[in-house]
Amino acid sequence: MKSGGGLKALLYAAKVAHRVGWRHLWHAARSRNACKTCALGMGGQLGGMVNEGGQFPEVCKKSLQAMASDMQQGISPDFFARYSIAQLRTLSSRELETCGRLVTPVYAGPGDTHYRAIAWDEALDRLAATLKASGPQHSFFYASGRASNEAGFLLQLLARLFGTNYVNNCTYYCHHASSVGLASSLGTGTATVQLDDVEHCDLYVLIGGNPASNHPRLLRSLMAVRRRGGNVIVINPAKEIGLVNFRVPSDPRSLFFGSQIASLYVQPHIGGDLALLTGVAKHVLGRSGDDRVFIDRHTDGFEGFRRHVESTAWDEIEAGAGVPRDTIVQVAEMYMTARHAVIGWTMGITHHLHGVENVQMIANLALLRGMIGRPHAGLMPIRGHSNVQGLGSVGVTPQLKQTILTRFERRLGVQLPKASGHDTMACMEAAGRDEMRTALCLGGNLFGSSPDSKFATQAIGNLDLVTYMATTLNTGHAWGTAKETLILPVLPRDEEPQPTTQESMFSYVRLSDGGPARYPGPKSEVSVLSNLGRRLLGDNGPVNWSGLAKHESIRALIAELIPGLEPLADIDRTRREFHIAGRRLDTPEFPTPSGKARFHAIGLPNPPVAQERQLRLMTVRSEGQFNTVVYEEEDVYRGQDRRDVILMNPADMQRMGLVVDQPVTVRSSVGALRRRLVRPFGIRAGNAAMYYPEANVLVPRDVDPRSKTPAFKSVLVEVVPDSA
């Protein structure tokens, strides 16, 4: 392929529409509900296929895939009688996803070989009884970014009133390094820009991400940057065709002729971003390209940062980055000539043991030229799930901020747990040590998104009960089973009986109307959690759980307790969506104790030296998947017809004596995958890529000490030919 998107995307949309029905898909796409996939944001009260800037039509393949998934036929109880759990384990992520919609609760107990259908009351009674028996110090609660603000708020409220801070969400496996790094530099953990800023910048720097596959609607904005005469710099170890040229389906000119995306495409080593950015800063300082007035007035820590950068040798920078000095200088020159620069990144930055330092260095670079605290410039962590940022806003974290905690205790008249709580990996480690008895998962695929898949199976298997709230089957339901396992079918947001809210990566809160349920069995997430709260804690305590079955009541409580979300109190009446106040930094006033941003002096990492048959591996998602959900085995943009492959630089293949489609075993310190097919790909020599979540078996459980995020994008692996 020479371009991403284009007619193939339109043909795929037609194929999906033909399968589920043109009228049904159009109605779903145009309904006033927030998009179910990435957090770039679409839908809500402006109507489906409209972004928060009012642009129409805004839709992508991933959105259609998610909608079509929810339109599948329901899974009958006969399915679970026919297929054992062992047989479910033989199915791929895609095969499990396409089994159909979950429409009735199912249960498997000790010694059971099959799931069986059970009644809702029995399921919730069993869950409540097991939580009581386990106690708060042996139970944890996990949420996916697809859940609503209302459901997320109830989940964390339930956990804390139960007596535990073992409550977390999927951000600890993705962007928590962004939150920690930005908060340490700027005092805020979210994007400093809004969509309008991206639409008016003259330089966009994209680091460690592939939005052509994972956030396709962002490519329209990048196309617009180039058309305005601006530049787009892409920094990625892999050459992704959609970031070179993309055909935006909603733009006729782009659709037929294609749009150049990258003005400059730089391919560092995996983990080489920190060295590359240090080199950019070194050249900017050497050319006196820093904004000294901004730095003196609005930042702290500059002198220590400057001394550290200037003392770092170019030889060290080039070796760490894997990029020659003249290319780094080219990046720096383009940055110095920009008037309004936005820097965006995804998990290629956060999925490292130094992910927080990566984010801090990005913030350093922006502060160096005063590209924060002004309109149309700033920082943009590109969140991967539609409401993962919203879950953090409403408190689905191991520890509430002190101001929020104080409000909770005063309003409810209770003392909430003060312990630091466990992040996601810490909960899994505790389960592995047999210290946890019960887990409740609000959406997502905890097994499929965890590193070291063998360990994940063992850890969840130690639990007395794991409960999954889900719309379709996934690998966690097959491999992430405990002594007792419950799967509770819930409604997607466009089938909710009451409106729900979601937050985009630009801190824009949308109101989703919901809609009629396609099947009678599933329940809303809030209904399940409020019923569980009533069974577990009763209605005579600080919270009336029966009353919180009403979403409007939950929003009133959120508005009272969570700073910035006060407009939720009136949103049912006004239907007015809003940006959370104080998140956009368009003036140089920072929410830090000093009111100033902070530079950080950061040393370069020292990764283990790869041996003769070793490569640095990053796990990647395909164009045909969303997070752990695989909709299509084919990865169109990378030219791959299957997922059991390892993508390598042709020079590494030649060095190791490997040929195309040769089966190999890929080994890491924690696991191995046999019979992976070698495929050539445009990735920097010394590096390789394999598909997530299948390659999670290779990912160690080590985490960034500050963000607690595993290094999914930096795994040392050995590649050896399979024996005949």
Short description:
The protein is α/β, with parallel strands linked by helices and 724 residues long. Helix content is 36%, strand content 16%. It contains 31 helices and 28 strands.
What's the tally of helices? 31
- Name the overall outline: globular
Task: Report the mean per-residue pLDDT as an integer.
Answer: 96
Helix content: 25-40%
Q: Percent of residues in beta strands? A: 15-25%
Largest sheet, if any? 7 strands, mixed
What Rg is obtained from the alpha carbons, in whole angstroms?
24 Å
pLDDT < 50 stretches: none
Describe the secondary structure blueprint for this structure.
Blueprint lengths: L3 E2 L1 H14 L1 H9 L30 H10 L6 H6 L2 H4 L4 H5 L8 E3 L7 E2 L2 H15 L4 E5 L5 H14 L4 E3 L6 H11 L8 H4 L4 E5 L3 H4 L3 H10 L3 E5 L5 H4 E3 L4 H6 L1 E2 L3 E3 L6 H14 L5 H7 E2 L1 H10 L2 H8 L3 H13 L3 E5 L1 H4 L4 H14 L9 E4 L6 H6 L8 H11 L11 H9 L5 E5 L3 H4 L3 H9 L3 E6 L4 H5 L4 E6 L10 E4 L4 E5 L12 H13 L13 H11 L9 H4 L3 E2 L17 E2 L15 E7 L4 E2 L2 E2 L14 E4 L1 H6 L7 E5 L4 E9 L6 E5 L23 E7 L3
Parallel strand pairs: 1-8, 4-5, 4-14, 6-7, 6-12, 7-10, 11-20, 12-13, 14-15, 15-16, 21-27, 24-26
Antiparallel strand pairs: 2-3, 2-16, 8-9, 17-18, 18-19, 21-28, 22-23, 24-27, 25-26, 25-28
